[in-house]
Amino acid sequence: MRMLYKVTMMLLALPLLTARQAVASPSDDTLNLVCVGEGEMMGSEYTNRLEWDKYDHKYRAKSGYETRMKNFESAITIQIQGNDGRIRLPKKLIPPLHSGGDDQHWWQLDDIRVTEDEIRASYRLNGMNKPSVKIDRGSGLIAIKGFGQGFTGRCDKIDEGTRRF
């Protein structure tokens, strides 16, 4: 997990520091975050297995599609400047039928509320799914909750023009 965190931070920092289409110019109220953590999404897969038949008292083959939540590790990038913001999602959090977003997986944040203690926002993936984003500014913990998906992790601030090491 530690190596994944370091590699993800390096890979996500480059486009964050060079991309400027939604955030005009850096200022004191600009916030750039990279959040690394675990997510879950609804998925289906075809399975073959043996299942105990309690009436015949023997195992029977069973196959078919099963729907269940699948876990994964990934990173999310967030940029906020004043009342404007956007979020960059990993492919695993983007449903096959989605609206909005650009070719680099950036979604516009809506209803951004920044206080001293937390940041709240939402974004529209499609007509049925408008996940909510909550970031605790003290601990750096992020929670994203949507229909059939979720993400929790820890965010780190990235400042333009500064090096981590």
Descriptive notes:
10% of the residues lie in helices and 52% in strands. About 12% of the residues have low confidence. The two termini are 20 Å apart. A nine-stranded antiparallel β-sheet has the order 4-3-2-1-9-8-7-6-5, with helices on one face. The protein has one domain. With 165 residues, it is mostly beta strands. It is built from one helix and nine strands; from the N terminus they run αβββββββββ.
What is the topological layout?
Elements: H1 2-18, E1 30-53, E2 58-81, E3 84-88, E4 106-108, E5 110-114, E6 118-122, E7 132-136, E8 141-146, E9 149-157
Antiparallel strand pairs: 1-2, 1-9, 2-3, 3-4, 5-6, 6-7, 7-8, 8-9
Tag the structure with descriptive keywords:
elongated; single chain; 9 strands; 1 helix; mainly beta; nine-stranded antiparallel beta sheet; 165 residues
Write down the overall geometry.
Answer: elongated
- What structural category do the secondary elements indicate? mainly beta
How many individual domains? 1
Please give the number of β-strands.
9
% residues in beta strands = over 45%
Looking across the biggest beta sheet, what order are the strands in?
Answer: 4-3-2-1-9-8-7-6-5
What is the string of helix and strand elements?
Answer: HEEEEEEEEE
Percentage of residues in helical conformation: 10-25%
Spans of at least 5 consecutive residues with low confidence: 9-27
The count of helical stretches stands at 1
Q: Nearest-angstrom radius of gyration?
A: 20 Å
Largest sheet: 9 strands, antiparallel
Terminus-to-terminus distance: 20 Å
Q: Report mean pLDDT, rounded to a whole number.
A: 82
